[in-house]
Amino acid sequence: MKHLLSIEDLDRAAVEALLDQSDAFLDVLARDIPKVPALRGKTVVSLFYEESTRTRLSFETAAKRLSADTMSFAVGSSSVKKGESLLDTVKTIEAMGIDAMVVRHHAAGAPHRVAQWIDASVINAGDGRHEHPTQALLDAFTLRRHRGPSLDGCRVAIIGDIRNSRVARSTMLCFTRLGARVTFVAPPTLIPERLDGWPVTVAHDLDDVLGEIDVAYVLRVQEERLGQALLPTLREYYARYGLTAERAARMKPDTFVMHPGPMIRGPEIATEVVDGPRSLVREQVTNGVAVRMAVLWSLIGSGGHVA
Length: 307
Ligand code: NCD
Description:
This protein is 39% helix and 15% strand.
């Protein structure tokens, strides 16, 4: 594997191999000195054309835990502001000598283009509404630790703004690769117009599915991508799709709660649910570092298992 651009490119065995490697790296992170020399001498650059908190810091932490050198590119303070194209920016960075480029871009397919232009490995850290493969892997990893070894038969509801969410697409693909059954729960306007061939069912009423699911995976409404009036009002949306404490109480006692962040605490997901005993939200963030270590190691490491 040279690049990680899409979960579509990974079969079940490939996903499982990455998650097994992530297990080993999670053990490394629990050590007194949470660091291995696996990528010493390698350089990883993050190229983020869109805002990010956890994904960028998580990749940079992962690279450092593997002893790689890191470079970070922030569009706001770069020559992009002077009109430099993506191609020129990428070629300039490559000329400094890098091994992997972690790319987030508002245009779907941008990381695929970058992968055609440079010799380094490219990792998609979120491209438009398309995919966010490492988020999907860390979600699958987190759920597998609680439901493993496989997710066969596990019922997952992905709730909210499916239409605008690259996380929904990647995570749905990754969960189903491991045998889970995914239902998208959203108003009709927030479901993609065409779901041809996607291995999902659709429900419009959250209250109908609450009692049957093993995982409630909540998404943020991406107001910055809504563009047109797809929702009458956010208040009405939250009244029907918010994961309130009252709704959480109607789930099975062992139903897990997940969220990729950033969260809108309160209307979207109640604070007592996020911080409750069935919430995996913080663990998702911790596990993200181990999973990204596994991805970096698989792409630019010297092969084989470490740790
Ligand atoms: C998401 C993203 O940027 O795709 N966040 C993330 O990476 N964990 C989802 C979002 O912005 O709501």
